[in-house]
Every structure is written in structure tokens, then in C-alpha cells.
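User: Before I run my own analysis I want an independent prediction to cross-check against. Here's the chain; please return only the C-alpha cells and, at the end, one sentence I can use as a sanity check.
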Amino acid sequence: MSGVWVFKQNGVVQLTENDSYQGSSRRKVLVHVPMNQVVTSYDVLERMLSSLGWERYYDDPDLLQFHKRSSVHLISLPKDFNKFKSMHMFDIVVKNRNMFEVRDM
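Assistant: C-alpha cells:
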């Protein structure tokens, strides 16, 4: 995860993601490269991941989790798609080389 260390007035230091630190209105989107399609919901993402061999785990009610039998990788996402951040997107990109990209909108 990348970001910027911000010193607050009370002396506390906090790591802030680059997106929120810059205050830009540009948001990140996850794109499925073969179809050039933006992931707009977890239903869409789940279909894409299952076609790549990922299986859904139902162990944690607060997370959406996917595992690939042929690897040790686990993708953990917040249950609420509105909390789906760039760090989650990059996790998917790293674990699925050449299949997904993160782009600025």
C-alpha cells in the first residue's frame, strides 16, 4: 500500500492513501483487460474471478474472500462494494497478472 505520512495538529502521524491525500476527484477503477470492462459490482467481479479458477470462501461474514486451489493466494475484500479501495484492486491485479488493471477514471 502506498501513501503519505501526514502529521496532524495533535502530533499523531497517520499514513494516508495517495488518493485521499492529493484530494483529487479522480477515482480508481478495476478493469478486466481481456474484455476491457470496468468492474462495477462484486457480482461482476465474482464471475470474472471464477472464470480464472478462483473459488468463493464463506468463512468470514464481514469479508468477501476468494481462493485459488493452485496457489496459496487469498483475496479478501470488504463486504460493502463502496469500501472497495485501490489497495484491494492492486491486490487483485498482482494475483492475476495480465488479467486486470487499475486505471484512473
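Sanity check: The mean pLDDT is 87.
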